[in-house]
Design a protein that fits this description.
Layout: E1 6-11, H1 15-26, H2 28-35, E2 39-45, E3 61-62, H3 65-69, E4 76-79, H4 87-96, E5 100-103, H5 106-122, E6 127-128, H6 131-134, H7 140-146, E7 152-158, H8 161-173, H9 177-186, H10 195-198, H11 201-215, E8 225-226, H12 234-242, E9 245-255, E10 262-272, E11 284-291, E12 295-302, H13 306-326, E13 348-357, H14 363-373, E14 378-385, H15 388-392, E15 402-408, E16 411-412, H16 413-424, E17 429-438
Parallel strand pairs: 1-2, 1-4, 2-3, 4-5, 5-6, 8-10, 10-17
Antiparallel strand pairs: 7-9, 7-11, 9-10, 11-12, 13-15, 13-16, 13-17, 14-15
Helix pairs in contact: 1-13, 4-5, 5-11, 8-9, 14-16
Length: about 450
């Protein structure tokens, strides 16, 4: 074993960073055996030194992240600050000064991963980011390495624990969205400002990263169609159960049937209870991968939290340190395909539409005609009168309209959108109560 230690700079010491430092310290001997050399925490950059967690040597703490990242004796920089800047400048500086980088920064990778990969390539440095997508779940490495010789056609996953907890509570207890969100906040699953989670921004960043790796093409955050779950109601969950489905916020990355383009999207969707993702409960994550040779694979586990995320960071750190010892380099960006990202309108799937309609003869025929005119084929139709609960909710009571629930065959999103607009123009349609895609069949 080499006796001179490999030096690691830690940028950020919050929930994840403090766990990284703790594991490096408490498992130092094991890490040294796995790497082939001791690993030394050479510096910890923070914004507020008075808030550094217990157990970290205060002599290592600095507020000058730029100077730490640029030190010539640093072998690997671990970036767990998050955000775009100064993280991008710090990572680029680390490359320029010969250090490999391990990051958990999904926002930066989704927005400007190309710049990071180009800088790493230019300086012959490592860029690892397993922790950026699903914390402890090994996902980036299997897609980037284990399946590199296969053709991945689809990645379908639950990649945000907060939203999965909320939807699970709504489904299992009948709670409304606000009630379930309050519970998630009380338990620490949701931030004080949950926008990034519930509006789908977090999942969209992960979808961009996964699509880029899976399809060997560059996919940016702006390429990902995004919808949150704030409009999902208890009625949507009840409708899903009647169809033998549940509702999940899904990240879906697909290769077109002709292989010439890809799509990436995040939105709530109904999936059959028979699908493996339907059984993913609480704040857990799971990703379902479909490839030509390997077939169907599923990756499951905790997708957030200090310790699980630190586990992924340490795995990357071991790889980067081993490369430093051997003089090698880990896999770089595989963006040779340069496939275009198709707009959401070209996505083909099924739909569940709930309409508030007048309860009189001829309504169903009018609705069916609109679907036919826009080339959207109807699979099933269910109609029921409004009840006392509807009256209590201000939606009219019995004999005051009806609910018409339509489930379509596969159609393009553009055709469905045009259909819905036309339905809103009918005098007999009082409103489109909900619209949800049906996936995973």
């Amino acid at each position: 074993m080499r006796t001179r230690p490999l030096k690691v700079a830690l940028l950020g010491c919050g929930v994840v960073g403090s766990e990284v430092a703790r594991i490096m310290t408490t498992h130092a001997e094991d890490l040294a055996q796995r790497i082939g050399a001791p690993v030394e925490l050479a510096g910890v950059a923070v914004r507020r030194p008075d808030r550094v967690r217990a157990g970290i040597d205060q002599q290592l703490v600095t507020t000058d992240a730029a100077a730490l990242a640029a030190r010539e004796d640093i072998d690997v920089v671990v970036e767990v600050i998050g955000g775009i800047e100064p993280a991008r400048a710090l990572i680029t500086s680390a490359f320029e000064h010969g250090a490999g980088v391990v990051t958990a920064n999904k926002a930066l990778l989704a927005e400007d991963g190309a710049t990071l990969h180009e800088a790493a390539e230019k300086h012959g440095a490592d860029l690892y980011y397993e922790a950026a997508v699903a914390a402890a779940i090994p996902l980036v490495r299997p897609l980037r390495e284990s399946l590199a010789g296969d053709t991945v056609n689809r990645v379908l996953g639950i990649v945000n624990g907060t939203t999965n907890f909320i939807l699970d509570r709504m489904d299992s207890t009948g709670a409304g969205y606000s009630e379930a969100l309050n519970e998630a906040t009380a338990l620490g699953y949701a931030e004080a400002d949950p926008t990034a989670d519930v509006e789908g921004f977090d999942a969209a960043a992960k979808a961009a990263i996964l699509a880029g790796i899976a399809f060997h093409t560059r996919v940016r955050l702006d390429d990902v169609h995004r919808e949150g779950l704030t409009d999902v109601t208890a009625s949507d969950l009840a409708s899903a159960r009647r169809m033998g489905c549940t509702v999940k916020l899904l990240a879906i990355c697909e290769r077109a049937a002709d292989g010439r383009s890809v799509t990436a999207r995040v939105h709530p969707a109904m999936i059959p209870l028979s699908h493996p993702l339907a059984s993913v409960r609480e704040a857990y994550n799971a990703v379902f991968v479909e490839s030509e040779a390997a077939g169907q694979l599923m990756f499951y586990g905790p997708g957030a939290g200090g310790a699980p995320t630190a586990s992924a960071v340490l795995g990357d750190l071991v790889a980067a340190c081993r490369n430093k010892l051997s003089g090698g380099r880990g896999p770089g960006e595989s963006a040779y395909a340069q496939l275009p990202v198709s707009p959401m309108g070209e996505v083909v799937t099924r739909y569940h539409i709930s309409l508030d309609v007048a309860d009189k003869p001829g309504v169903l025929a009018q609705v069916a005609t609109v679907f036919a005119e826009h080339g959207v084929s109807i699979d099933t139709v269910r109609q029921k009168g409004k009840d006392a609960k509807d009256a209590k909710d201000g939606k009219g009571g019995a004999n005051d309209g009806a609910w018409l629930v339509v489930v379509t065959h596969r159609a393009t999103d553009a055709a469905l959108s045009a259909t819905v607009e036309a339905l809103r123009g009918l005098d007999t349609v009082r409103g489109v109560a909900s619209l949800m895609r049906v996936e995973g069949e």
